[in-house]
Write a structure and sequence with these properties.
By secondary structure, the protein is α/β, with parallel strands linked by helices. The chain has 13 helices and 13 strands. This is Lipase domain-containing protein.
């Protein structure tokens, strides 16, 4: 079967759209990234017909379970467990498969720049590609109002290929990542089902070992990875990069990323101030290990006074300047992870009761073969086998203001005995 056609989405005024949902007004930060509509115009070949679907997807609370089925992907049910008066007051079903048009784009060391589209409904696209089932597979999943053409996706892909001879697959769901935010959150469930179907096809028809699969998702992409993981037994690892807070924090485990979605789930929190304070990311632990650099709320270098927009615009372009303006803390998790891939400096994090205690030097012990300390980033999986069965382990670290963000910190303590104190006082 030929790949499903895509579609361009109409984009009403973002402010008009999000005025319906005050909880997610802050996500407008990503709107200033240029290029997503242009990208969709290039990617798709027909005019938008999504208006009808968007109009049909008005918020509602079901009186009973509501179910929709999506061809070979399976069925989706909305129950009352998917609703909460404060955390998730509205819900809709996803847009159609044709509108979201999820695609899987492969890059390897043999084709580092020109991607190859893989389609589970057309095995020739897989057989004729450079996909090697014997090699580990890394899957990158973008978030709200983002595309595979974003600078960070390209940079992460490049650094991963530099690190290892791996299959790098980017999940393209740009057709479903546009506002409304409520609609985008609903679309993540269907994208997760598409990804699960694709991976299960690779497992059953090409011998892929799910333990060799590592999904890396940012914001809504982190929860998308969770939806895929729950449908693919034995997934090796999911890394959540500042998972989105609105409509996920405080909800049951099946609504969001959680430790049951893979053998090892590690999460980096960088923007957990709460959506009411314009924080986009979760502060709630949702992995086997949860890293909180700089307490997981405000990151050094994200203050506008420290990082002027005009200077960033000159250095790194419009896309990065827009991120600094409205989503710097949220995207800093991406930067830390990318920096960790090939950096000789390790982001050493320490288990502690609180960030204040960490900064007071109470948690710097790091015994060999223990989980008192772990490296944040790509190398976190090296510690997975030694983890206890408990989940939600909090680890803290600090970073610098600019690249390279990784820094070495030392805590030196002095212990005085009564004899040394006597000697000291005798000498004065």
């Amino acid at each position: 079967m030929a790949p499903r056609p895509g579609a361009q989405l109409l984009q009403p005024s973002p402010l008009a759209q999000l005025s319906r949902i005050a909880l997610v007004a802050a996500v407008l930060g990503h709107v200033v990234q240029g290029g997503i509509l242009d990208y969709l115009n290039v990617r798709t070949g027909r005019q938008a017909t999504a208006a009808t679907e968007l109009g049909a997807g008005i918020p509602w609370v079901p009186s009973d379970n509501e179910t929709r089925c999506y061809d070979d992907l399976g069925c989706m049910t909305l129950t009352k467990g998917w609703y909460h008066l404060i955390y998730r007051p509205f819900n809709v079903f996803p847009l159609s498969r044709e509108m979201i048009n999820t695609r899987f784009i492969l890059h390897t060391r043999r084709n580092p720049t020109e991607g190859q589209v893989l389609n589970a409904e057309n095995d020739k696209t897989i057989r004729k590609s450079d996909f090697d089932v014997k090699k580990p597979t890394k899957i990158i999943i973008h978030g709200f109002i983002d595309t595979p053409l974003s600078n960070w996706v390209k940079e992460m892909r490049r650094e991963l290929l530099k690190k290892g001879d791996w299959n790098i697959i980017t999940v393209d769901w740009a057709g479903g990542s546009l506002p409304l935010y409520t609609q985008a959150t609903a679309n993540t469930r269907l994208v997760g089902m598409e990804l699960a179907y694709f991976l299960n096809h690779l497992i059953s028809h090409f011998g892929l070992d799910p333990a060799d699969v590592h999904m890396i998702g940012h914001s809504l992409g982190a929860h998308t990875a969770g939806y895929a993981g729950e449908r693919v037994p034995g997934i090796g690892r999911i890394t959540g990069l500042d998972p989105a807070e609105p409509y996920f924090q405080g909800m049951p485990y099946y609504v969001r990323l959680d430790p049951t979605d893979a053998k090892f789930v590690d999460v980096i929190h960088t923007d957990g101030k709460s959506i009411f304070l314009l924080g986009y990311g979760m502060s709630q632990p949702c992995g086997h290990v949860d890293f909180y650099p700089n307490n997981g709320k405000e990151q050094p270098g994200c203050d506008i006074a420290e990082n002027p927009i005009p200077l960033t615009l000159v250095k790194e372009g419009l896309e990065e300047a827009s991120r600094v303006l409205v989503a710097c803390n949220h995207v800093r998790a991406i930067k830390y992870f990318i920096d960790s891939i090939n950096s000789k400096c390790q982001y050493m994090a320490h288990q502690c009761d609180s960030f204040d205690h960490y900064m007071q030097g109470r948690c710097y012990a790091c015994k060999e073969n223990s989980t008192q300390c772990m490296v944040m980033g790509l190398q976190a999986e090296d510690y997975a086998l030694s983890l206890p069965k408990t989940t939600g382990m909090k680890l803290y670290t600090t970073t610098g203001k600019e690249y390279p963000f990784c820094s070495k910190y030392f805590c030196r303590s002095l212990k005085f005995t009564s004899e040394t104190l006597d000697t000291h006082f005798l000498g004065t």
